[in-house]
Amino acid sequence: MFYMEVTMNKKGIMGLMLCAALLCGCGSNAAGNAAGAEASVANEETAAVAASKTSAETATEAASAEATVEEAEVLTDDAILKDLCADYFTLGVGINGSTLDNQCLNIPQYMELSKKHFNSCTMTNLMKSGYILDQFGSQENLKNGNPEPALNFFSIDPTLEWCKENGMKMRGHTLVWHTQAPEWFFREGYTEDGEYVDKDTMLVRMESYIKQLLAHVQEEYPGVIYCWDVVNEAVDPDSADPDSDFLCRTKLGDQPNPWYATIGKDYVEMAFTYARKYADPEVKLFYNDYNTYQEPKTEGIFTLCSHLKEKGLIDGIGMQGYWGIDYPDMSMIKKAMERFAELDLEIQVTELSVGVDKETDKEFEKQAEKYRKIFTLFGQMDTQGGGPCNITNVTVFGLVDHYRDGDTTNTRLFNKDYQPKPAYKAVKEAMEAYN
Hints:
Layout: H1 10-23, H2 28-48, H3 53-77, H4 81-84, E1 90-95, H5 108-117, E2 120-123, H6 129-132, E3 133-134, H7 135-143, E4 150-151, H8 157-166, E5 169-176, H9 199-220, E6 225-232, E7 251-252, E8 255-256, H10 258-263, H11 267-278, E9 284-289, H12 297-310, E10 316-319, E11 322-323, H13 330-341, E12 346-354, H14 361-381, E13 390-396, H15 422-432
Parallel strand pairs: 1-2, 1-13, 2-5, 5-6, 6-9, 9-10, 10-12, 11-12, 12-13
Antiparallel strand pairs: 3-4, 7-8
């Protein structure tokens, strides 16, 4: 919501309504109509300079009438995305940023638009262990006879506080991941050049990390985080442990997976064991991965999550959703979702991102059509729409293209000026068809 004083001339009124149309999420047609009306009013205003007082009063009345019509159009088209899918799943948005200075929390317009259209959010970077683990503090703990790692929460507290104040729920992302985990965390003395610690030592560190992080968010921000991506991307057919029935990742490129190197394939189950031990009862636990539609990865994830479900350790599967305009085919996504639905676990699409190679009108229309197909599929696959899948959340992994200098991402529903892209309209229309 915004407020400003307006002089009651026609150009001022139409300018105000152009701003309102853009901020309220109207499509390009509404913006074009408002701009055209503004130009027409400007021409009339020039003629009115030489006109009589009576003519000026008539023109003012006409402007007032136009304003009323335009206001009605804005109110009619002011869709709120999270409301359109409320009977199906919650709608999430990524809160981008890699530092406290460049995070979206510092952009009021970003946060207000997020609050309007979404009821779930995910911190895309700042909740990962590389930001939370404190190397100096961990070394000090060792000197004092405490083997547990030290944590600090400066990277996550501001966004958690915003969520608490604004009634926004959050997906916790992520507890255990081989990437963006500092190498020193896995080594003797919490040093960069130490040897890898043994399994028992690493399990102590893993448990302590999960315990401390969950305790902090649950005590300081109760009810904000409603689910966790407990383990991220542990299934990898290319580097799979040959003795792992779920194709446990052993490497990332040429580098070892440090969780596997220190604990072995059991690291996934142990992470879920500790998360279940310390998470509040209502908090859901997810396994999250990319390329979930590719076989044999689909089967590896199915096998892993089936095992975890038997032990009562998992509530859902996260399908990341880094998909292109031409690939994967919708039938591949559908097939994977049907397979996961057999486990009777929740399904969440956690990091939905459809990019374009060139930022042209033609490419953005293709992007919009892919988003339309994706959200149409979600409506068909969800149990609310008669499908087999209990889809509980869909998260687009960002709101605005090029939200800061250096950001080259073009996968989002709004452009850098916070105007809706064709993708926004396509998603809106697809979800309107749910009801």
